[in-house]
Structures are given as C-alpha cells and as structure tokens.
Specification:
The chain is α+β, with helices and mostly antiparallel strands and about 230 residues long. The chain is built from seven helices and five strands, in the order H-H-H-E-E-H-H-E-H-E-H-E. The protein folds into two domains: about 55 residues; about 120 residues, 2-Layer Sandwich (60s Ribosomal Protein L30, Chain: A), CATH 3.30.1330. It holds the Pfam family Gly-zipper_Omp.
Length: about 230
C-alpha cells in the first residue's frame, strides 16, 4: 500500500508539472535556444517542491486525501516556479539586447548573474569607477527598477595577489561603488545587498594571468522574490 501511495503521488505531481510545461511556447524543455526554458524548468522544480509540501501538509490522511494534497501542491508550486522562470527569461532577453559584449549574463533558473570584469570597471588598486561600463551598470539598474519584485546582490571578487584582508576590503569598496550607481538610478537601498568576497570564490585558476583576470570581477545577482 505504501509503495502504491508513493507512486501515485509521484505520478500526479509529474503529470501536473508536465501539463503546465506544455502550455508554454517555444522549443523543447531542454532546448538551450528556447526563450522560455527557465519558465519550464521553474514549473517542474516548483511542482516537485509543491508536491512535497502538499504531501507533508496532508499528514496521515487517507490515500485520496494525500493524492489530492500532492496534486494541489504541485499545481501551486508549478505556477509559482513558472512565473519566476518566465520573469527571468524576459529580463535576460532584455539585458542581452542592452548590454555590451564585455558583460556576461547567466540565467540559472532562479536568478540572473550579470558579471562585469573589474579590469574595465576600475583602475589597478582603485575603487573609483571608470567610464568604461558605467552605461551598462545604469542599464542593469534600470532593468531592476522595471522588475520591482526582485532583490539585487552586488558582489565584489578579486584574484589572490596581495594580502587577503586587503583584497576583501577592496572587493567590498568596489561592490559599493557599483551599488552607488544603482542608488543614483533610484533603486531603493532596501533592494540592494553589497557583498565583498575578496579572493575566496575564484572561478578560474589564480596561477595564470588569464585566470586572475577572470577572478577580478563584480557580479550583479538579480533574485526574484517569492511569488
């Protein structure tokens, strides 16, 4: 009986998620060129989470009650996940049209990560913004204003050259300099988190000049709030 209940719950949640996924437009679910891929992924992830929540909420009710609770949770979760994914897909497409080729944009399905190289943003050992990517930062800030149901993390990173404590301070000051542009564009301070990571989160090897260059960066992470 227990195995039947588990299989029924999984079946119901999967059908609900795939049903909602099929309602979206664009290519297949895992098509990298599908502009709605994160909406579909969000629907599936939300359905799975909602199904688990529904199962827990049902407690020790009978099989029918549990299955209904799982289905309801899957539908609610899928709708919420699809809404977040759809918002990210749309915002990502807009930013790709607006920002230059030196800015990297990554859509993970639950956030957008906009990465800007510090070598263009700042002179060596400086936390004063140069004019190189100022327009791009302003464009990201305006995008954040157009999507008010989001929180933005501005995270500074350095390579491993020099003293770790100094690198941490420098990364914080550089992140704050980018945040100041957001504030000047009227993004509320309550929606901005300024974080310095120093040399603690490299994305490449610090043993080569090319790797160090990649590690010197500022990431603008756009996080949709729960819907």
């Amino acid at each position: 009986m227990r195995d039947i209940m588990i299989r029924s719950s999984i079946l119901l949640s999967t059908v609900a998620a795939l049903g909602l996924s099929a309602c979206t437009t664009g290519g297949g679910l895992f098509d990298e060129n599908d502009p709605n891929r994160q909406a579909k992924t969000g629907a599936l992830a939300g359905a799975a989470t909602g199904a688990v929540a529904g199962r827990l909420a049902a407690g020790n009710g009978d099989v029918g009650e549990r299955n209904r609770s799982v289905l309801a949770g899957a539908l609610i979760g899928a709708a919420a996940g699809a809404a977040i994914g759809n918002q990210l897909d749309k915002q990502e497409a807009e930013l790709r049209q607006q920002l230059g080729s030196q800015v990297d944009i990554r859509n993970t399905g639950d956030r957008l990560i906009v990465t800007m190289p510090q070598d263009i943003l700042f002179a060596t050992d400086s936390a004063t913004l140069s004019g190189g990517l100022l327009g791009d930062i302003q464009d990201v800030a305006q995008s954040v204003l157009r999507y008010p149901n989001t929180t933005t993390q501005i995270i500074g990173h350095t390579d491993s050259d020099g003293d770790a404590a100094y690198n941490l301070s420098l990364s914080q000051r550089r992140a704050q300099a980018v945040a100041n542009v957001f504030l000047a564009q009227n993004v509320p301070s309550s929606r901005i988190q300024v974080i310095g990571r120093g040399e603690d989160q490299p994305i490449a090897s610090n043993l080569t000049p090319q790797g160090k260059q990649q590690n010197r960066r500022v990431e603008i992470v756009i996080l949709p709030n729960a819907v």
